[in-house]
Write a structure and sequence with these properties.
There is one protein chain. The chain has 416 residues and is an alpha/beta fold. The strands form 5 sheets. A 7-stranded mixed sheet has the order 6-14-13-12-9-7-8, sandwiched between helices. Helix content is 38%, strand content 20%. It folds into 2 domains: 147 residues, Aspartate Aminotransferase, domain 1, CATH 3.90.1150.10; 252 residues, Aspartate Aminotransferase, domain 2 (3-Layer(aba) Sandwich). The two termini are 38 Å apart. Strand 10 and strand 11 form a beta hairpin. The structure holds pyridoxal-5'-phosphate.
Length: 416
């Protein structure tokens, strides 16, 4: 009886959503109503192992009690006052971000020290907004230091968001078919091709290079660490700002606090979102003080950005990530995940870093794998026909990875 009623609840929820919500996503037939750690529960009570984490957001796992307590405590005081005022926790969160951004790590992501750099943050609400801010800081740099240069060079297969400027920055033609005209000044070159990048810089007019250290939405394609070092050198040679989009890779997703640290470089501008507040909607862009100080009152803003709830959620998340030594956990479990994925049938390549992994399949079964995975209690994600992407909550255990891998191996055998 209870089950019957709950099934009706899902049908009703689906009908309402299908009728009244814009169809900008192909939706899977499930409504998740609760979660804990790397598990999600749907409206019928079925439990799933989650290898997507709300698209890379629930860094501490679903409904983490410490973050929940911080939000609840703030909820009873004040939510939104606007950026004309000081907001509790916002400064502390920005300081914590500055310290994380200054971390020196080795190539695997183990923390080794601090650069001592001062980073200043602007708070937004999403990754795309964070990147909009990054682009504005870079163009201000071009205006003040590079004689008005405004061009932004990005990478093919990149993804930077869904606003018009971030779509223009996104180096995938499929995103440029409609909704034009886009803002001018964007060009993209193949990732890991230094000659192509150098030629684009030599062509003149650029103020910045913008990259993801591991391209997420484009199919989990890592930038080589030596390439990132060369890009830094190229920027230094020409005075360009280096923007690193850490929206997906940041906050220990790849092991290091931020993925650029594994290359031993320091960017000028870093955008972030997803994992920053363990799923509470927040975005941010940080810049080294030299660039950040070029932005003055009136240059940029956001009504909700850095609101009291987001600041509380972000500060609790970042504090917990550091206190729980999440980087070391991600390095170990990320390695385990990569090994288990490499053993799967029909996998020709495992890509990525830490707990951001992609597998290339030699059969085009990625979509049915996601559908069948859901039926089997696995939340999976595909990019195109033959890539699966894994972004579990960072608290995922080796045992949960083993369970997922065993189920996935069977599903691949069935569908291939
Ligand atoms: C690297 C990167 N940048 C930007 C974005 C856009 O973030 P949002 O969807 O929060 O606007 C994403 C989203 O997937 C992303 O992966």
């Amino acid at each position: 009886m209870a089950k019957h009623m709950m099934t009706n609840h899902f049908d009703e929820a689906k009908a309402l959503d299908d009728t009244y919500v814009m169809h900008t996503y192909g939706r899977l037939p499930v409504e998740f109503v609760s979660g804990s750690g790397a598990e999600l529960t749907d409206s019928t009570g079925k439990v799933y192992l989650d290898f997507l984490a709300g698209i890379g957001c629930a860094s501490l796992g679903h409904a983490d009690p410490v973050v929940a307590a911080a939000i609840k405590s703030q909820l009873d005081r004040v939510w939104q006052v606007g950026n004309y005022y000081y907001v509790e926790h916002r400064g502390e969160l920005a300081q914590a971000i500055s310290e994380l951004l200054s971390t020196i790590t080795d190539e695997e992501g183990h923390a080794m020290g601090s650069t001592g750099t001062l980073w200043k943050t602007f708070f937004a609400n999403s990754g795309a907004e964070a990147n909009e801010g990054a682009l504005k800081v870079a163009r201000r740099w071009g205006e003040k230091k590079l004689g008005g240069a405004s061009g932004i060079i990005t990478a093919r297969q990149s993804f930077h968001g869904r606003t018009l400027a971030t779509l223009a920055a996104t180096g995938q033609d499929v995103f440029h078919k409609s909704f034009g005209p886009f803002p001018d000044g964007f060009t993209s070159v193949a990732l890991n091709d230094l000659d192509a990048l150098a030629a684009a810089v030599e062509a003149g007019g650029a103020c910045a290079i913008m990259l993801e250290c591991v391209q997420g939405e484009g199919g989990v394609w890592p930038a080589e660490l030596s390439y990132l070092q060369d890009v830094r050198d190229l920027c230094d040679e020409h005075g360009l700002a280096l923007i690193v989009d850490e929206v997906q890779t940041g906050f220990f997703r790849c092991g290091a606090p931020f993925a650029f640290q594994m290359a031993g470089i320091e960017p000028d501008i870093v955008s972030m979102a997803k994992g920053i507040a363990s799923g509470f909607p927040t975005g941010a862009v940080a810049a080294r003080a030299e660039l950040a100080d070029l932005m003055v009152p009136g240059d940029h803003g956001s009504t909700f950005g850095g609101n009291a709830l987001a600041a509380a959620a972000g500060l609790a998340t970042v504090t917990e990530l550091v206190q729980r030594n999440m980087g070391e956990h991600v390095i170990a479990t990320g390695q385990h995940l990569a090994e288990r994925l490499a053993e799967l049938p029909h996998v020709t390549e495992v890509r990525g870093r830490g707990l951001m992994r992609g597998i290339q399949l030699d059969v085009p079964i990625a979509t049915p794998l996601v559908d069948e995975g859901l039926k089997a209690g696995l939340v999976l994600n595909h990019i195109g026909d033959s890539i699966l992407r894994f972004l579990p909550p960072l608290v995922v255990t080796e045992q949960q990875i083993d369970t997922m891998a065993e189920h996935l191996a069977m599903l691949i055998e069935q569908l291939a």
